[in-house]
Amino acid sequence: MMEDITQHRFTNGKLNLRRFHQAKWDEPVIFEMSEPGQRGILVPEVEDGITDAVGDPLSNLPEKMRREESPKLPELSQPQVLRHYVRLS
To answer: Is residue 83 part of a domain?
Structure first.
């Protein structure tokens, strides 16, 4: 049987509403919030078994389309990114 969650929406007979946050014009750009060394997710290296079965994925990519250096992405933790975009929404 499913729990009735409507009771959690009220406190002392009053409806619990999420507080409204006015948009700010001086909200920092995500690159301005970047802190060196922060990471939201680390992508694992390709396992040897996959490389043996599929080959090197970069070998199928034309030389003109390969990056010469890694993209300069903001360095933020995953919760920081989430909070930033929730504020913007």
So the answer is: yes
The DSSP result for 6-46, as a single string, is GGGGEETTEE--PPP----TTPPPTTTT--TT--S--PPPP
Distance, in Å, from the CA atom of 30 to the CA atom of 39, rounded to the nearest integer, reads 14
* 18 in Cβ contact with 78 (< 8 Å): no
Q: How many domains, the chain?
A: 1
pTM, rounded to two decimals: 0.53
Domain membership of residue 16 (yes or no) is no
pLDDT tens digits along 12-35: 777 766 666 666 678 888 899 999
